[in-house]
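step 3/5: co-fold with magnesium ion
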Amino acid sequence: MSIARAQHCRTLLFVALAASVSFSFAQTKVTEYQVKAAYLYNFGKFVNWPDTQANRPIFNICILGQDPFGADLDGVLTNATIGGKRASPKRITDTSAAQGCQIVFISSSESGKLDRILPALDKLHALTVSDMPRFLDHNGMIQFVMDSGRVRFEVNLAAADTAGLGFSSQLLKVASSVKRSEKKGE
Amino acid sequence: MSANDYPIFRRLTRMNMLASTLALVVACTAFLAYDVFLFREGLLRNLNVQAQIIGSNSVSALTFNDPKSAQSTLSALSLSSNIISAGISTPDGQRFAHYSRTGGAELVQVPALAAGNDEAHWFGLNEVVVVHTIVFQGANVGTVYIQSDLNRFYARVWQYVLILALILFASLFAARFISAYFGKAVAQPIAALSETAQTVSRQKNYSIRVMDSGAGGEVSVLIRAFNEMLEQIQRRDDELQGARVGLEKRVEERTRQLVAANRELEAFSYSVSHDLRNPLETISGFSYLLLQEYGDKLGPAGKANLQEVNDATKRMAQLIDDLLALAHASSTAMHREKVDLTQMTKSIKSELQRRQPERDVSFVISECVSAEGDSSLLRVVMENLLNNAWKYTSGREKGRIEFGCKQESGTTVYYVRDNGAGFDPENIDRLFKPFQRLHSKSEFPGTGVGLATVQRIIHRHGGEIWAEAKVGEGAAFYFILQPELAARQWA
Ligand SMILES: Nc1ncnc2c1ncn2[C@@H]1O[C@H](COP(=O)(O)OP(=O)(O)OP(=O)(O)O)[C@@H](O)[C@H]1O
Ligand SMILES: [Mg+2]
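step 4/5: write tokens
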């Protein structure tokens, strides 16, 4: 699903899309990146990190490259905790600054440098998330996709495995597709 | 007689059955209540667990807004046939996913849970609803409810009721048989006792004894006491019987002596009366001769004195006749025959009228059934009663004498009634005693032996005589004859 189309749908009502026809949600408008910010935060609750990451006092959610969220992420993370740790946003321009990031959102501005960025982040045991197309093919872990106006995501189990991360089955259940190791296919 | 026919046995059986029914109903009700309670708890626990599982399985669906995933989680409930519907809503109360057994859209209005309250449930008549808050990492991510029917619950209650009825039925049967077995042991000796008691009191046979069938306990004591009582009664009865026989013998002896003495006395008075007659006739004859042959020489005073002697001898002769009649009435042999008292009255009436034709006395004589007795003695009775009536009405200008009879409780009561001088009823006791008179000789002559003779004759006929009277208004004499009660008298 193209970003342009995704942008197009920004103004659609989140719940109206989500719910079945019998329910009519009359609520404040929720933007696509507000949803993605919330998801980004929530991923933290369904992923198991190796000890090096798990022992950090602060849960950092980092944005690498040009920030598409603006204030949305800061809004979501106000007073938010994950596994009892305070969640905090962090904007970085390079993987060298990714030390201490549990989740790294890779902006589409970085699409050209993926082959360099992803192995570096794997070493840091960080969860890599992006909404650029074919992210999973580059061994990214979670990729946002748009499905009839709804924000959904695909998961690459093999990539997470490489970085020593584990996904909870609950997360896999709601993923629109799960990419397992090459042999099993999807 | 089968045990069933004893009232006491029936009562025992009824008591047994009632007691066991009551005990069973109470016990089964308690069991039912306990089971219903347990079942309810179990049902709730089950639903709670299911709600919890659904809740925790729906966390990611809620978090990542995936109603389809929640839907599929909910649809697992179709395995539990008791669940009518279930639903998941977001924390702000919007419906997120829902499941319905029929596939329809039955909705349960789930009220918001109070803060700090993670679960709630409520029972309807045919359903129970369980609500759970879905909490994930300390945050409320939604609410799940499950609505279950109570079919299995009611089926269970019905089962219980059915089992209760079956057990009740079976145990009533058992109670009946047990009663039949043990009740017989208790009821039979008592029934036998009561039967014997009845027989004893009906037949007055105190030699009967109740058999002790070895029931033991109070029943045996009762039987022993009853038998002892019977023995005492029998002993008393025998003693009484003996005493009576002795008494009868003594009475018979005395009566015999008395009768003998009486005979002697009667014979004596008869011979005295008889022997008095000869000198009296001599006195009477010679005083008559004296008066006839020497009357002129005696002078008027002497004549009067001699007349006095003559009158006195006449009265004495009358007295002797009366006494002889009394003695005769007491001792003469009696012959039982039919006697027409009406006819007798008529003939006596003619005699009286012939003797004193100047008197104006009307007779009313009823036709009465014939009496039974000795005709010459009954003639004495009627003569005396009618003579009295004739005599004591002499003061009346128009005398009236009545003879009649009436039926009183099966016996014939004869009566002679007049409208003469009458007498004071206070003196009735003296009436029938010899020589007792209620009127003076100057007023009405007589010796006072007549009614004594009458009573003697009536008594010899097994009968009774009594009188009613009022001074100046006449008198009535009633008598009955019961010859069958005087069997010894008949020759
Ligand atoms: N019909 C009557 N009316 C009134 N008084 C009567 C009648 N019959 C009897 N008495 C009373 O009862 C008394 C006893 O009667 P009872 O016939 O024995 O004697 P009596 O007539 O005087 O003498 P007698 O021996 O000659 O009959 C009488 O003296 C009389 O006073
Ligand atoms: Mg008389």
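step 5/5: annotate
The domain at 9-129 of chain A is CATH 3.40.50 (Rossmann fold).
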